[in-house]
UniProtKB/TrEMBL annotation:
Species of origin: Glycine max
Pfam family, one: PPR_1
Name under which the protein is recorded: Pentacotripeptide-repeat region of PRORP domain-containing protein
Protein's gene: LOC100818060
GO BP annotations, alphabetical order: RNA modification
Family annotation (InterPro entries): E_motif, PPR_At4g14850-like_plant, PPR_rpt, TPR-like_helical_dom_sf
Length: 649
DNA sequence: GTAGGGTTAG
């Protein structure tokens, strides 16, 4: 079978040889094809594409004097992988001769792009194909399945001349992507023979749908022991990882222990069903997710066969617990760190706030990928170095790396931090043109618009979300209304959210209490605060007390606010004292203002805000001597007046 | 160089 395949592909190559012979006078063309410049270039091209270096690949492609169908297909495949369908299509249209692979590639490209327009074009091209093979049918079936069009997927499944396991897997995965567990299992049961890859597809989909018990049952039923299934261990690995994701370490371990280990007896190599490196890595990942670094490390040290994934998993574990010493040590020890290892280290350094070192690592990377860029940009954003983040964002585009939704989400947060509505709007346009917005993108857009004062735009984004809005989306919009002073809208939205059975979080209540503060609703504020504790079982945090202080203070109930500060179960932070000081300023209560300002200065000795506020209070009351003494005190303490605070109110 | 399925980074 294998040799027949080789013979056939040789023949295809030979058929294309006359073009090569035109310029290369060689005695035996068949012999020389492997070492021919064309074949060498094709290999180089596919290597570049495989490692994600698309612009270098394109340069090579453009410089090639001779190209065959494989050359064109490789380049198209590169663009399809990166969802650059317009570029892929251009090459497809330009290429002199197309084979069935070229057609399959372009059809798969359209189906993997988001949006019904692309799906329709993919289908149109499928209908136009001069000939179709099994791959063509499977491409379209899985394309429809991934786009939620199970009606079409099933129609084509029934229309195709002959099914293979891939056809079934595509349908099973499609059902499970839509959460249709019953149909997926039912379809699986109609299969004439249970290929282990189908079992794997079913189990991984069930895991995604949280159906772990069902998955375990099916695995017991279909995959008991060594019954000749070549890749049975894949299915076990999937379930181990699934248990790990949901924190069921014991169940995962029990499954792991069921898989025979080479060490158990002398059967290495003979047994098909045995632990492989992925089993070890998945089990290790379970411990990592559970925060059990000791067990993870123990497993790592016991592993005979090590790969980069094992190293990377353990590195990411140390990164998660912020132990950068151990993470860097592993990074230095590992034989050949790959882009994932670098990304983990950069992410860890950025999380610790060590941006310079993170940037240093980033610049020393042999090859960056999209995630490297996203990691470093997110790091700059989280550490509030917005200018740096923007600079990296433009560098990234100059280097031909296309931003995806993770990049965009980060830079939208940057525009929020800069309160730059112009930038935010530009990014919003880029989102509309390039990605299907998901929850994080929409949330960052809502936050950006409301922080920039464009509450109407925030509301538009919120209302245009077709699919499910998660609790963060609701929080963002309620928070937007609250900080904008639109208390009625905030409270109305909160009511709607509860009616839709979206469970509020402590953040929701911070916004709700803020809305009450803006609207002067003291009673309502207390009612919501009690409801948070009694109806939703949410522990109050210091932020909630800060809001209550704000509510009381704004209404002039300054003594009540002070009493609350003295009796609350937290050490008051700067938000609490800030709320009190602001209220004292409005209600001209110098006595309590001094208490609040004093506390604030202790908490943040370098901040000029409390000084300036006190100064303005005295000035307003005409107590110029006191005002002056505040200014002198500030000078003595060497506090610099920050931008944004004015001596004149 | 194309379709489905297992572990690691944003």
């Amino acid at each position: 079978m294998a040799s027949l395949y080789v013979r056939l592909s040789r023949r295809n190559i030979v058929e294309q040889l006359p073009r090569i012979r035109c310029c290369h006078v060689s005695a035996s063309p068949t012999h020389n094809y492997n070492s021919s410049p064309l074949n060498q270039s094709n290999k180089k091209l596919s290597n570049l594409i495989r490692s994600g270096r698309i612009s270098e690949a394109r340069t090579l492609f453009d410089s090639m004097k001779r190209r065959d169908t494989v050359t064109w297909n490789s380049m198209i495949s590169g663009y399809v992988q990166r969802r650059e369908i317009a570029r892929a299509r251009q090459l497809f249209d330009e290429m002199p001769r197309r084979d069935v692979v070229s057609w399959n590639l372009i059809v798969s490209g359209y189906f993997s792009c988001c949006g019904s327009r692309f799906v329709e074009e993919g289908r149109r091209l499928f209908e136009l194909m001069p000939q179709r093979d099994c791959v063509s049918w499977n491409t379209v079936i899985s394309g429809y399945a991934k786009n939620g069009r199970m009606d079409q997927a099933l129609k084509l499944f029934n229309a195709m001349p002959e099914h293979n396991a891939v056809s079934y897997n595509a349908v099973i995965t499609g059902f499970l992507l839509n959460g249709d567990v019953e149909s997926a299992v039912g379809f699986f049961r109609t299969m004439p023979e249970h290929d282990s890859t189908s079992l794997c597809a079913l189990i991984s989909g069930l895991v995604r749908n949280g159906e772990l018990d069902l998955a375990a049952g099916i695995l017991r039923e279909c995959g008991n022991g060594d019954d000749g299934k070549d890749d049975l261990v894949h299915a076990y690995n999937t379930l181990i990882a699934g248990y790990g994701q949901r924190g069921h370490v014991e169940e995962a371990r029990r499954l792991f222990d069921v898989i025979p280990d080479d060490d158990d007896d002398g059967n290495e190599g003979k047994r098909r069903f045995r632990r492989n490196v992925v089993s070890w890595n998945s089990m290790m990942m379970c411990y990592v997710k559970a925060g059990d670094i000791v067990f993870a490390r123990e497993l790592f040290d016991r592993m005979v066969e090590r790969d980069n994934c094992s190293w990377n998993t353990l590195i990411s574990c140390y990164v998660q617990i912020s132990n950068m010493e151990e993470a860097s040590k592993l990074f230095r020890e590992m034989p050949s760190p790959d882009v994932l290892s670098w990304n983990s280290i950069i992410s860890g350094l950025a999380q610790k706030g060590d941006l310079n070192l993170a940037k240093d690592f980033f610049e020393r990377m042999p090859h960056k990928n999209l995630i490297s860029w996203n990691t470093i940009i997110a790091g700059y954003e989280k550490n509030e170095d917005y200018k740096g983040a923007i600079k990296l964002f433009s560098e990234m585009q100059l280097e031909g790396e296309r931003p995806d939704k993770h990049t965009l989400s980060s830079v939208i947060s940057v525009s929020t931090g800069l309160v730059d509505l112009y930038l935010g709007k530009q990014l919003h346009q880029l989102v509309t043109k390039t990605v299907l917005p998901d929850s994080p993108i929409n949330n960052s857009l809502i936050t950006m618009y409301s922080r920039c004062g464009a509450i109407v735009d925030a509301c538009t984004v919120f209302n245009e979300i077709k699919l499910y809005k998660d609790v963060i989306t609701w929080n963002a919009m309620i928070g937007g209304y609250a900080s904008h002073g639109s208390a009625a809208e905030a409270l109305e939205l909160f009511k709607l959210m509860k009616r839709l059975k979206i469970h509020p979080t402590y953040i929701t209540f911070i916004s709700v209490l803020n809305a009450c503060a803006h609207a002067g609703l003291v009673e309502e504020g207390w009612r919501q605060f009690k409801s948070m504790i009694n109806d939703y079982g949410i522990e109050p945090r210091v932020e909630h007390f800060a809001s209550l202080v704000d509510i009381l203070g704004r209404q002039g109930q300054l003594q009540e606010a002070m009493d609350l500060i003295n009796t609350m179960p937290f050490k008051p932070d700067k938000a609490v004292w800030g709320a009190l000081l602001g209220a004292c300023r409005v209600h001209n209560n110098v006595e309590l203002a001094l208490v609040a300002a004093d506390a604030l200065i202790r908490l943040e000795p370098e901040s000029s805000a409390p000084y300036v506020l006190l100064y303005n209070m005295y000035a307003n009351l005409g107590q110029w001597d006191d005002a002056e003494s505040v200014r002198v005190l500030m000078e003595e303490k060497n506090v610099k007046k920050q931008a944004g605070y004015s001596w004149v109110d």
